[in-house]
Amino acid sequence: MPELLPRRRLDQPGRPRRFLRFEIDPEAFGRFSERLARFLGTGKFLFWQTLLVVVWIVLNLAAASLQWDPYPFILLNLAFSTQAAYAAPLILLAQNRQDDRDRISLEEDRKRASQTKADTEYLARELAALRIAVGEVATRDYLRSELDRLRQDLNAKPRRKASAETIKDNPAWHDRQG
Fold first, then answer.
1. CB of 91 closer than 8 Å to CB of 40
2. What is the reported pTM?
3. Count of domains in the chain?
4. C-alpha radius of gyration, the chain, whole number
5. Which regions span the lipid bilayer (predicted)?
6. In a domain, 158, yes or no
7. How far apart are CA 3 and CA 7, in angstroms?
């Protein structure tokens, strides 16, 4: 069977058909949207926007020759609508990126907490094993007291010299000789 052309193969993804070969870096666009969203939430932006609106309204009401947007201020409303149409998606994009960062950070914190818990449990088991082992080990003071008690027992009993007859009367002596 003849090999199909690469553009006709169904088991491989096709190339996107674009009229314009315009590539957008999603990270760069995301960083731009975050910076813009941060700026839109500042007092500086609100100050300049308020100043622009006041100047716009004063010029359109007071200057008869410069009235490019008469009283209902339809052009100003269009500008605000356009600003809102772009600002809302950019703010949502910035929030989504922040959510992704928070999710990654939370997952790392969970892993770190899990590892810390496992390490703590291991150390607790090791400490318990050491306590048990130390409890079974004869300490220097214990050995000293036992040796003192043994010395007292030996000093308290009268010493008898073993004669040859008493040794021969011992059955263990006969077993060794035998």
1. yes
2. 0.49
3. 1
4. 47
5. 45-68, 74-94
6. no
7. 11
